[in-house]
Design a protein that fits this description.
By secondary structure, the chain is mainly alpha-helical. The protein is built from eight helices and no strands. Helix 1 (3-21) runs antiparallel to helix 5.
Length: 159
């Protein structure tokens, strides 16, 4: 993965962080986003073809226009109790966003296909490895663990 591709990963990271900050249910947001026409049109591109002239807020408005309405987190559900910390919630969401875009660049699959091959419920659990491992190593580990075809030569970020 080259630095331009890594920069696109960081843009998607910011989009996921913004969605988390707005209290969207991140699994539902991620599943919708990865399968959306917006994602296919803007993000499923090679870095040479990638053009984003919109702010993160404008991107979110386009996603919401396409989705109608995305569900927010239901704080009454017990499963979210450990994720109420704002930094943790935003950081974890950003991590997942970055990883999905990295997976796009190192595999032959579209975002829509990756959503099914690497479910959100599995990807976010790799967040706990980030203190020890860089994201590109984690993306490669996900491919190995979930038996997803990937390009070994393109898996690591080349600065």
């Amino acid at each position: 993965m080259n630095t331009a591709e890594f920069d696109i990963c960081k843009i998607q990271q910011k989009l996921y962080e913004y969605a988390a900050k707005q209290d969207y249910d991140m699994e539902k947001f991620s599943d919708f986003f990865l399968q959306s026409a917006f994602c296919a049109e803007l993000f499923d591109k090679s870095y040479q073809d990638f053009r984003l002239s919109e702010t993160i807020e404008e991107c979110m408005n386009r996603i919401l226009a396409e989705s109608g309405e995305l569900p927010k987190i239901d704080d009454s559900k017990e499963e979210y109790d450990c994720f109420k910390d704002e930094f943790f919630k935003k950081d974890r969401a950003g991590f997942v966003g970055m990883i999905y875009r990295m997976l796009y660049f190192i595999t032959p699959y579209s975002s829509k296909e990756l959503c099914k091959k690497a479910p959100y419920s599995k990807v976010w659990k790799y967040y706990f490895a980030t203190p020890q491992e860089p994201e590109d190593f984690i993306a490669e580990s996900i491919c190995i663990d979930l038996n997803i075809e990937y390009d070994e030569d393109n898996a690591l970020v080349k600065f």
